[in-house]
Structure formats: C-alpha cells, structure tokens
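Risk register update: the risk of archive-format incompatibility is retired. Evidence:
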Amino acid sequence: MDEFGAHRPSGVNRLILFLVRMGFGRGKLKRVFSRAWQASSPDTPVDFAYHGLRLRLRPVGNTIESKILFSSRLREAEELAFIRQYLTGGGCFVDIGANVGYYALMAAHAGATQVLAAEPNPELVDRFAANITLNGHDQQITILPVAIGAADDTARLHLKQGDTGGSSIVRNVAADGAIDVPVRPLAALLAEHGVTAVDAMKIDIEGMEDRALAPFLIPENSALFPRLLIIETVNRDDWEVDVLQRLAECGYVTIAETRGNSVLALPA
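Archived output:
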C-alpha cells in the first residue's frame, strides 16, 4: 500500500482544503466544495491529516468521507468527547456500522486497547483496512466483515446510490444494486473475541439498530452491556422494536441528544 502522503491534493483540490482549514467549510459552502471536487477528480483518493488521524478518503459517493474532508468542524465532536471519557486508561470499544472507520479509529487514537468494528460492505472494509494501517492501529482494531442481527444468517444489503455508507438491509433506499452479506449476533461475536466488558459502543446501521440490539439486551448478556452507547435515531421509523424503551428498561439513562444520535449510559 502507498505510504501516507502519496495522494496529496493538487490544483483546485489543494485550494479547497486550504479554505476548509481557514474555517470556510460551513453551511452551503461544504456542498460547493464537494461539487467542485467531484468535477475535478471524482475517483481520486486524497490523504488527509485530521485531528490526529491519517485518513485516505474518497469523498465522492460516501457522505461521511465528504463531511470529514469539507467541514471545518470536528465531525460529531460531542459524541467523541463522551467516548474519550469512557476510554480513559484504555478499554473496549465496539463500532457497529463502521463505514471507513471514523469512530473506531478515533477510539483507538483515544487509547482503546481493543476495538471491534462491524462493517458488511466489502468496499468500505477495504477503505477501513487501509486507514487502520496508515494509523498503525492493526493491533488494536479488528474488522468484522458482517452485519449484526438476531442470528447467524445472510441478508441483502441494498447499496445506496450516491452514498455507499447509507446502504441498508431494512430501509427503502434508492439502491444501486445489492449484495448478500453475512449476519452475526452481537453476543456471539463478543464471545469469540474474548470480550468480557464493553466500555463504549456506537451503532449506526440505517434503521437496523433494533434488530441488532434488541436480541442482545437480555439478562444473560447484562455483563456485556456497554457502559456508554451512542445510537443513531434518525431512521427509527424503520424499527420494529422501540429499542430506546428497551434500553431504558435495562437501566440506561439518556445523557445527551445530538443532531442524529442519542447518547445513553448505565449509571455507575
């Protein structure tokens, strides 16, 4: 694999990133930057130093990569601040719906000693793996190339046109094809990797959060319940189970609501 820096921006792309660093990556200008980048080099990766991480991004066709590259603000700063609190001195972080590894890499950078990251899309797994290597976190982060569900199974992942990270098993997305992906239950994966306690977890799987979490939230797994849980809620209309209510029944308390996520914690 090419060393970090092999894909430096040039020309108009270099100007765009300069403007982002100067603080202009806000509001409608982010879309302007994205369109300009797409017009000049839609398929070109770029190496980008971002708040302590070394990232190789392809911002065209994946929303999270675009937002990382073209926004002057730290993406999901509030959520990351909570994660850092819960990983003080190390610990285990679980990322369900890892995409290119933003949360997982940030957790490892914050000091997590073990990171398990589930991502079923092979294209995103390859990008994620490259970012792990670029940051030297191969010993901390394990990619699980699976979707999380109730039982061992296979599911159809509908690939969202224009945003591969928005692909979904349960949501009615504007799909650009579909692929079969393996499904594994969360408790089984944790057991296979020797996890006995989870300090923090993030889950963002496009409306399938309830299918992944509800079967896990049973008394037999209580020792594995994450102390901190960040769950995307923007697609809760696709849930079959009110997993927030289930979490409350398990003792979780909502400690923050951000633009797209609920942040919950178990009382100490």
